[in-house]
Amino acid sequence: MSRKAFAANDAQWCYHGGELLKMGDVRLSPATHALNYGTGVFEGIRAYWNEGKGTLQVLKLREHYERFEKSCRMLRVELAPTVDELCDITLEILKRNAPREDTYIRPLAYKSAESVGVNLRGGSELSIFTVPMGNYVELTGLKCCVSSWRRTADNAIPARAKCTGSYVNTALAVDQAYQAGYDDAIFLTQGGFVSEASAANIFLVRKGELITPPVTADILEGITRDAVMELAEKELGMPTDKRDVGRTELYAADEVFLTGTGFQIAPVVEIDDRSIGTGEMGPVAARLQELYFKAARGDWPEYADWTVAVEVAQKASR
Ligand SMILES: Cc1ncc(COP(=O)(O)O)c(C=O)c1O
């Protein structure tokens, strides 16, 4: 089981209730609507530490907040700051916390009424916090199973909106996978096509062709998915075919890999106890992983617009 958990720290700065404060000073009532009913939306953003430059490179910051805004609209969560303001608040938190290591940023907007009753009325709250985060999963080869839990359908709980409540579906599938000795779970849609992994999109390579399930397969429309499709097309000359994928195409694939902010680019070497391709990371995943990290760490001028740099002060001057 290779997935790690990364703990938050009370001494760190965060944003909550319209101001910057220490995590330990945040108060939440157990009656908070989102805690009772899963009526929140969130994002996961990575900032990569660039040792040479002494900067944190925040990856796809604006894209994450654009998706966040759309998720909020779906759940009628009112978001006071604009996308630009959300970006600025995030950069300020990073400057204050000044981590000199890879860091994860978690914006969370939710229904904050402290009363009992399920609906989408009532007020909203926004919190943003950071935790240090290295590799979430092993990047050399995951062993996955196809889950017996189906992905929540778009007209049940939309996967397109990154809702906190949807992650019960994820947790059930991950728990089942772990109990059976796998690293992660792959969801099928209600109709039986491949959807995505627990918290990552999925790609296959078959006969030199790159394939990923379409946005109608109850997936989160991943920002890393878009980034990988861009790299594959521009740098490898491999456009991606977005089409329905049958379960056994996974077994027949030459390569399978997962993409996500947390997962990064993680090859899958075994599915349902069957080796994928050679049973080791394939050449397409390896090349994409290398290119992705180069762009994400801010070391590739052609992809400079993927990241925003934050100068991090030395510890002594904090
Ligand atoms: C269910 C799910 N699918 C896909 C992804 C990948 O999305 P992204 O690349 O935007 O991080 C995530 C990541 O958080 C996820 O939770």
Short description:
With 318 residues, the chain is α+β, with helices and mostly antiparallel strands. The chain is built from 7 helices and 17 strands.
Overview of this protein structure:
This protein is of the alpha+beta class. It folds into two domains: 133 residues, Aminotransferase class 4, branched-chain amino acid transferase, N-terminal domain (D-amino Acid Aminotransferase, Chain A, domain 1, 2-Layer Sandwich), CATH 3.30.470.10; 155 residues, D-amino Acid Aminotransferase, Chain A, domain 2. The strands form two sheets. Strands 8, 9, 10, 11, 12, 13, 14, 15 and 16 form a nine-stranded mixed β-sheet that branches. The structure holds pyridoxal-5'-phosphate. The site of pyridoxal-5'-phosphate (PLP) has 14 residues, from α5 and β14. Pyridoxal-5'-phosphate binds next to α5 and β14.
Q: Which ions and ligands are bound to the chains?
A: pyridoxal-5'-phosphate
> Helix proportion of residues, in percent?
25-40%
Radius of gyration from the alpha-carbon trace, in angstroms: 20 Å
CATH class of the largest domain: Alpha Beta
Give the total of domains: 2
Give the H and E element order: EEHEEEHHEEEHEEEEHEHEEEHE
User: How many H/I helical runs?
Assistant: 7
Shape: globular
CATH fold title of the largest domain: D-amino Acid Aminotransferase, Chain A, domain 2
Structural class: alpha+beta
Ranges where pLDDT stays below 50 over 5 or more residues in a row are none
